[in-house]
Design a protein that fits this description.
The chain has helices at 44-51, 74-81, 99-109, 114-127, 143-155, 173-190, 201-207, 225-230, 235-241, 273-281, 313-322, and strands spanning 2-13, 16-28, 33-37, 59-64, 67-68, 84-88, 161-165, 193-198, 210-215, 218-224, 256-267, 286-295, 298-308, 327-331. By secondary structure, the chain is α/β, with parallel strands linked by helices. The strands form three sheets. It has a six-stranded mixed β-sheet with strand order 6-7-8-3-9-10, sandwiched between helices. The two termini are 39 Å apart.
Length: 332
């Protein structure tokens, strides 16, 4: 378990003190995949670096498996960091080493014999789907393959926590999906706790169970992904969930009510939901704005609909849409 208590981080800037993090309180349960999301400058990377003490918090504590990271001696901290590994946006592989030797590197630093290290590295390359790339160099690999090698290297010391700092930001959507699937599989197979730092909603939606939203160094909202994204309460969360402005408060006219429809993993069907509603219920919806996407045959995103105000149609539309499952509807 990771417990972050009253954590703050202040830097000395050219114009004085800069508060990068302000009184952060979070708990990440063992075996969870926890997302920390925010726009650039929100403090995400600073927070993840405070977790393993690459950055020392100005105030507060980080407790991992009952150990206060700030109180550890340099030797104890090095030992603890072998259990808390990281992967990055830039992969950070050693270009002069083969893939096998890249994975061997942390094992060699830990004092493992070369033959044992090679055997373990080979097993890890197989785990990440690259058993045939042992003798290849990073420059010969695609970005997704390089990230797989980086993941294998991060797993070499049998960590309990994997920190992912914008690990898919440099990858195309298909490769991002494959890397996230790999991280999810590793989480299930090995029981590793994963903390995902990202600015991408799709990343959190795809693999995280819990999420914290950072804005200006402050946690403005946190909880289950489905709960937070279905009904965001903070302005920062609304900007992330409704980037196209679908959350704007639109005053209803005399003839039409506005319904905001949030899709939080609703299963896709052969006929679009709004068209089905028109056919089955005779409710003709005016789509005012929409921002949806499909991930693994599930729909995420939102729509703003105009529904005729007569004959109780808005209430009927809300009831129909919410009957689908993983759909949240409110009048705005």
């Amino acid at each position: 378990m990771i417990e972050i208590r009253n954590l703050s981080k202040t830097f000395d800037g050219a114009d004085g003190k800069v508060e990068a993090l302000k009184n952060i309180n979070l708990t990440v349960s063992d075996g969870d995949i926890y997302g920390i999301i925010g726009m650039s400058g929100a403090g995400k990377s600073t927070l993840v670096r405070c977790i393993n003490m690459l950055e020392r918090p100005t105030e507060g504590t980080v407790i991992i498996d009952g150990k206060d990271m700030k109180t550890l001696s340099p030797k104890e901290l090095r030992a603890q960091r072998r259990k808390i590994t990281m992967i990055f946006q830039g992969f950070n592989l050693l270009m002069q080493r083969t893939c096998l030797k890249n994975v061997c590197f942390p094992l060699e630093l830990a004092g493992m014999k070369k033959d044992e290290a090679k055997k373990r590295a080979g097993e890890l390359l197989e785990l990440v789907g690259l058993p045939d790339k042992a003798k290849a160099y990073p420059a010969q690999l695609s970005g997704g393959q390089q990230q797989r090698v980086a993941i294998a290297r991060a797993l070499a010391t049998d960590p309990k926590v994997l920190l992912c700092d914008e690990a898919t930001s440099a990858l195309d959507p298909n490769t991002t999906h494959s890397i996230l699937s790999l991280i999810r599989d590793i989480n299930k197979k090995l029981g590793i706790t994963v903390v995902v730092i990202t600015h991408q909603m799709s990343v959190v939606e795809e693999i995280c169970s819990h999420v914290a939203i950072l804005d200006g160094g402050v946690v403005v909202e946190e909880g289950l992904v489905g709960t937070v994204f279905a009904s965001p309460s903070s302005d920062a969360a609304k900007r992330l969930v409704f980037p196209n402005g679908a959350d704007m408060m639109v005053s209803s006219s005399e003839t039409e009510k506005r319904l905001r429809v949030v899709f939080n993993g609703a299963k896709t069907t052969g006929t679009p939901l709004i068209a089905r509603m028109a056919v089955e219920k005779g409710i003709l919806a005016n789509i005012l704005s929409a921002g949806t996407r499909c991930v693994d045959d599930k729909v995420y995103g939102s729509m703003l609909l105009g529904i005729p105000a007569k004959d109780g149609m808005p209430a009927l539309a809300k009831e129909y849409l919410e009957s689908v499952g993983d759909v949240y509807v409110e009048e705005v």
